[in-house]
């Protein structure tokens, strides 16, 4: 189903949720390159490892939330970002949408929602990478 190896960064402050996400992604045949609890560690990882896709919890440990982290990640690499959030007030949703994420998934999520969002992002990456250079 998945034609190429996609490296995924997961930024999640709750270890058990991070492990659940990793399990689901591995079931889809995907490689979780790292699970980090802070925005700062996510940025450090992207600087050194250039993952293809990022799943970011909006609530993270450290000084940066997921939205601030996504804004900084875009400085290093143009990649699809999927936000995971329990925060659904209008102001927070606007902050997320302003960054044009690939998707926003409400926590707690159903496995199907995460699977669909990630599979769609992978398909997008595969199509983007198969386009001829002009």
Describe the structure.
This protein has 134 residues and is of the alpha/beta class. A 5-stranded parallel sheet has the order 2-1-3-4-5, with helices on both faces. The longest helix has 20 residues. The radius of gyration is 14 Å and the shape is globular. 34% of the residues are buried. The mean pLDDT is 91.
Considering the chains and any ligands shown, give keywords for the structure.
134 residues; 5 helices; five-stranded parallel beta sheet; 19% strand; globular; alpha/beta
Short characterization:
With 134 residues, the protein is of the alpha/beta class.
**What Rg do the Cα atoms give?**
14 Å
State the end-to-end distance: 28 Å
| Average pLDDT taken over every residue | 91
Main sheet strand line-up: 2-1-3-4-5
Q: What is the helical fraction, as a range of percent?
A: 40-55%
Q: Unreliable runs, pLDDT <50, ≥5 residues? A: none
Query: Number of helical segments?
Result: 5
Characterize the biggest β-sheet: 5 strands, parallel
Q: How do the SSEs run, as a string of H and E?
A: EHEHEHEHEH
What percentage of amino acids are in beta strands? 15-25%
Tell the overall outline: globular
Give the structural class.
Answer: alpha/beta
Total beta strand runs? 5
Give the helices and strands, then pairings:
Elements: E1 7-11, H1 15-27, E2 31-36, H2 39-49, E3 53-57, H3 66-76, E4 81-85, H4 90-98, E5 103-106, H5 111-130
Parallel strand pairs: 1-2, 1-3, 3-4, 4-5
